[in-house]
Amino acid sequence: xxxxxxxxxxxxxxxxxxxxxxxxxxxxxxxxxxxxxxxxxxxxxxxxxxxxxxxxxxxxxxxxxxxxxxxxxxxxxxxxxxxxxxxxxxxxxxxxxxxxxxxxxxxxxxxxxxxxxxxxxxxxxxxxxxxxxxxxxxxxxxxxxxxxxxxxxxxxxxxxxxxxxxxxxxxxxxxxxxxxxxxxxxxxxxxxxxxxxxxxxxxxxxxxxxxxxxxxxxxxxxxxxxxxxxxxxxxxxxxxxxxxxxxxxxxxxxxxxxxxxxxxxxxxxxxxxxxxxxxxxxxxxxxxxxxxxxxxxxxxxxxxxxxxxxxxxxxxxxxxxxxxxxxxxxxxxxxxxxxxxxxxxxxxxxxxxxxxxxxxxxxxxxxxxxxxxxxxxxxxxxxxxxxxxxxxxxxxxxxxxxxxxxxxxxxxxxxxxxxxxxxxxx
Length: 426
Ligand code: SAM
Description:
It contains 13 helices and 17 strands. By secondary structure, it is of the alpha/beta class. The longest helix is centred in the C-terminal third of the chain and has 26 residues, at about 340-365. The structure holds S-adenosylmethionine. S-adenosylmethionine (SAM) binds near residues 38, 150 and 292.
């Protein structure tokens, strides 16, 4: 989501101030830090990066330093007072005001801050997504209203808010006209999607998937992230009914212990999650399911962690993002004693990742010899004379072929595997 937002910022400043992207801060007229505060480590990095930028600004007083994203949203005042080098502070919901903030800074000479939540205004004010290949991200909803006890997102990105269906469809049709064949629908909880512009408010995520999948030119569809709550029977049925919907799903569970899930305020049990996965697999046999986990939540015992390992073994997750719990200021869990010692968190993290990595590796190994349809995205990262594409279950495949295939779907036979990356032959 932050990558998507960063692209939007670059597009905005290109349009308004003719600014071009550079990879080197030393060459920049404006440096924008787009920040994340979901874990403490990411947040600390902002202040150390600002320290380095302050030195650069000492030799180049015209340099404009801007801080956007969730750290800005949460720590705006502190950034302004602790870091006098900062000229602009804006939140995830005010990034569309960046050009105006930059003008205001330059004309008044005074640092500017806007971390309000004007919600839908942002979607209307953003430039259309640039097609930089045959696969693109499209944001369909923003924010989160789940208020999990550990999570800072509702406070930094605001509550759930969806774009009108017509706006989403228009953006995707425009992307198709520019060569896009696959879209990934983006949001904190995409399955909380509702089209508020529809008076009855009965257009939900399953309907949006059906509409996007019916657009001529769209050949594959993914989404991220969904939440186990609001994963309706209609959404499960959509997975069975829409062949363009990729056979892959990232469905964060966080823990396999009901006690911890309760303390996290996730609103479901491990049995509910297992039943959901079983119903999905009934609709789409072989669907690849990955997940997010937090280890070391306050009060997590060995038995709780064991329950998470049991859930992982039962579901056979095809990969995971796992994190050691870090208390976030302003969240209810931050008031609990952080009881699990760091070395225990680390050990649990490694054990968990080893388990999900092993399943992912065996899924990859089982793909050798199979035929896979991939969307050719461009040259391979390791060897520019080769091409790379993505399978339905989201694995990168490198293969030899003519560059004219970029942007098309091709059929490959998988010949080899190195962990998550595959090799194939046309
Ligand atoms: N909205 C999705 C959900 O809750 O199912 C996931 C999005 S969340 C912003 C991304 C991931 O960051 C979470 O799934 C969780 O695993 C992790 N995360 C969030 N807060 C955290 C915290 N305080 N400590 C460690 N990991 C955290």
